Amino acid sequence: MATLKVLCTIAVRGAVSELLPGLERTLGHRLDVVWGTAPMLVKRVEEGETADVLIPSKAGIEALRQRGKIVPGSEVTLASSSTAIAVTAGAPKPDISTTDAFVRALRNAKGVAYTHPSAGGASGVYFAQLIERLGIAEEVNAKARHPPAGGFSAELLLTGDADIAIQQKPELMHVAGTEVIGLFPPELNVVTVFVGALMTGTKHPEPSVALLAKLREPDAVALFRAKGLETP
């Protein structure tokens, strides 16, 4: 029995975590999964870490492909996600249906949780740019709260540090006791695509290919969708 090392974005953690026991049984191999934001995973590879399978964002795969870290032709699109907003389960749900309403909700919030841009998560980088564009960055950042790098912003709802959390929809759904109230207004929405691929130098190419194929089977696709992801 081999151990396949997988560097995987936290955006698909909810689905992949549930699939792990079944994947290990059907593949006949142990899966050692390291979680992080896509940029965190890219940085680890750039600094010399090795793995068998990489599951970051499409942009992350492209960056690593340019550095010769991806086995050509091994890429598999697994899912995509929009950035969303969550509140504590049972709490009042602010109107976020339009840009003006979204801005009011952010201004009225006592605390806004989102991934710090320095952590590299797509939602945090985009949100920081968005509030700058909307002219409310200083106001929002004065009451911003940030989870640890690779963590979940919705956890700050449970501690009372924030009453609105921003992150990828499946990352918000991963935190029990919170509720996703919707995506960003259509004119502000952004979609991130997540792609799996074999890392150059993998010693287990056949089971690694089989793993990515299993993540595209109907049961896996259904779970991805149940966890808030869109699938090809």
Describe the structure.
- This protein is an alpha/beta fold and 232 residues long.
- It is built from 10 helices and 9 strands.
- Strands 1, 2, 3, 4, 5, 6, 7, 8 and 9 form a 9-stranded mixed β-sheet that branches.
- The chain is elongated, with a radius of gyration of 18 Å.
- It starts with a strand and ends in a 6-residue tail after the last helix.
- The relative contact order is 0.24.
The count of strands amounts to 9
Rg of Cα set: 18 Å
Secondary structure tally, helices:
10
Pick out the low-confidence regions.
Answer: none
Average predicted local confidence, pLDDT:
95
Shape: elongated
- Residue share in helices? 25-40%
Indicate the proportion of strand residues.
15-25%
The topology string of helices and strands comes to: EHEHEHEHEHHEHEHEEHH
Major beta-sheet overview: 9 strands, mixed
How far apart the termini lie comes to 31 Å
Structural class designation: alpha/beta
Keywords:
9-stranded mixed beta sheet, 232 residues, single chain, alpha/beta
Please describe the topology of this protein.
Blueprint lengths: L2 E7 L3 H15 L2 E7 L1 H9 L6 E3 L2 H9 L9 E13 L10 H10 L3 E2 L8 H13 L2 H5 L2 E2 L9 H4 L5 E5 H5 L4 E6 L7 E8 L6 H10 L3 H9 L6
Parallel strand pairs: 1-2, 1-3, 5-6, 5-7
Antiparallel strand pairs: 3-9, 4-7, 4-8, 4-9
Helix pairs in contact: 1-10, 2-3
